[in-house]
Model the fold of this input.
Amino acid sequence: MRPVAVPTRTIAVAAAAALILAIVGLAACRGTAATSNGDTPDAGGDAGACIRVMPRTEAGTCPVVPPGGVVCDFTEIASGWCHAPDCPASEGCCAYGVPNGQSETCFNVCGACDKAVPREVACVAQGNCVTDSDCKGSLPHICQNCPLTPQGQGSKGCAHWVCKAGQCQVGYCPSGLSCQAGLGCPSYYLRPLDRSCKSDGDCVLADHVANCCLTVKTAINRSEQASFAELERQCIETHEPSFFECGCLGSSLDEDGRSPGAGQSFAAMCVAGACRAVVSGLLQCGAGTCSAGQSCCVSSDVTGRCIYSCADSCPVVLNDSGLVSACHDGP
Done:
């Protein structure tokens, strides 16, 4: 059996991205027209393109969205991809799986896998990055509806590269805390909060419930705690109680998609004059700790016992059967 090296603390970026992407999905009336630059069309023009926001919650109002707000469908999917206009439901969709140990994003294609867009076109390597410009590779033209702004304006977000937690990811909508909403209310971005600070003491952690399985840790100025609590209350009231009954254990991530490892925790810090939730503390790795930004890597010796080491990234080494094997700390 070949040595095995796997990260004990995996930043679940792809999973987080999928979850955060799910919360910005916008329930909209499928229309027949949208402007090419993503601006909201005149709701009084093409009645099939947009619908006015109507108060439908139990409280009788959709919070944040003002009177006259409109929801439009800006969805655009190029030919060949799943749910494109020329991809009937009878064709089905193909979802390529990502091989173990590889960091890729694969887009669902229209039709059976053996007849649809080839895997090398449908899947793009993510790679490591420092800034968005470090990410390379052509992405398909797939656009989705973004949450409404606090002023009730809609827009579209098209597939593009973003650098998150040191790894290239496919992004769509602008970043920001949003409410998935329900009971007839559209998804919307929470209004901006004061995050200004001069020291860490000006900042406090706040929990935003993204969905029943994900809590986003953010940081705000202490003076905004009551305002933030009110925004959360309004968002939660737009949901049926069953929305929070998905049966998962749940997880917490900061706005960069990071979660604490062993020996670490979230902390509110003042970074360049703005409050941010960060992962603080040294990562435990066997009997020692790793420096900031490093991962704890584990490999097995000839007896199968774990050997711990710190590195910028941990390679994934497969055993003779092609599987990732676990080591043990016991005798």
User: Anything to note?
Assistant: Residues 6-280 form one domain.
